[in-house]
Every structure is written in C-alpha cells, then in structure tokens.
C-alpha cells in the first residue's frame, strides 16, 4: 500500500459519510520505519507524522525537520513524567495524557516554556491492565482537572483491545468525548481507520498500511 492509496481511502470514507476530508487528519505513524521510507513519504508531500517513543523521535525528527520545517509531529505512545519536558519541546500534539500527575507536569512546564502541545486524553476503553489510558469512569474528572489548569485538551484517544470489535470502542470514545464537550477523536489504525472515520474520528493513526510492515528485528 502507499500514502496515496490510504489518502484516497480516507477521502472516500469521508465522502460516504458526508464529512469533508479536511475533518480528518491522517497521521502517518513512522515509528521503527527506516529513514529512507520516511523520507519518501515526506517527499510525496505528507506533513503529519506520529511516533510512539520520545527517544526515537528525538533521534530522527530534528534532522528531517531541517529539510521539511512545516512537519507536524504527534506523540502517540505512553509518556513517562520525566520525559514530559522533552516531549513538549519536540511534539506538536501529545495523544497520551492519562493521569492527573502528568497534567500537573504539563501545566508547570507550559508556564515555564510558554507553550503546550495540543493534548488528547488516552482512554483505556477495554480496561486492559497492560495498556495505558485512564479508565472511562475516571475520565470526566481528568478532563475537568486539565481544563482547570488551562491545558489545551483537544479530544480523546483510544487503542481498542486486539481481539475485540474496534467499532464498539470507537463508539464508546465518541460518546465519552461528546459528554465532555470535546470534538477531537484520535482513533483508527491500519486495519480499522475507515470504521473509525465513520464513527467520528478526527485523527487516524496509520503506520504499516502506508510504510509497510515494521521490522523489529
Ligand atoms: C503503532 C501505532 C499505530 C499504527 O499502527 P498500524 O497498525 O501500523 O497502523 C497507531 N497507534 C498507535 C498508538 C501505535 O502505537
């Protein structure tokens, strides 16, 4: 598959459900991919990328940004508090705010450095022990807490459990967002981004369908 094919599918799905294509941001997830593949997609004109590790992103994106300064970078992986500052300086958006302590940290650092990336709160919709994200029943309090510190909360993010029907989780996330007056929905990956768009996704995170399989070897 390729960037143009995935962009076309995003456009078609938007058309099918009567949404403008500009409603949906395609985040090309470049984690673990070799630099030449990322370079190719940059040269094709795509400017929104996702990474799941601060360290990895810090290693490769400053270089790419010298050639492609208008690149927008999204953190989509879990964030340790001690890497919050580095993440806030490197990323334009962070999709993995999931606890009050991290919200406090963001607020303190934002005061110091004078800006804060756009934030999404990750919700553990499947209540999986191994997965990051706040439990759905603790979400409203976290939204309120983040808002009270003037953090720019744009929406919610989820990663459905692998063996469950993703659309149930997408629908739940949409409901939770609506209840909290949030419009951003970061949901949908290579295998299910079309379903996510139909259920209201504003940000889809697509890796392997654009770049090919990741080689963790
Ligand atoms: C890796 C990753 C993706 C992309 O997964 P693909 O199946 O390759 O599209 C999306 N979201 C998160 C949080 C990821 O870590």
UniProtKB/TrEMBL annotation:
One of its GO terms (molecular function) is pyridoxal phosphate binding. SUPFAM superfamilies: PLP-binding barrel. The keyword Transmembrane helix does not apply. Gene3D superfamilies: Alanine racemase (3.20.20.10). The keyword Cell division does not apply. Keywords: Pyridoxal phosphate. InterPro entries: Ala_racemase_N, PLP-binding_barrel, PyrdxlP_homeostasis. The modification N6-(pyridoxal phosphate)lysine is found at residue 31. Residues 37-214 form the Alanine racemase N-terminal domain. Its cofactor is pyridoxal 5'-phosphate. Belongs to the pyridoxal phosphate-binding protein YggS/PROSC family. Pyridoxal 5'-phosphate (PLP)-binding protein, which is involved in PLP homeostasis. This is Pyridoxal phosphate homeostasis protein.
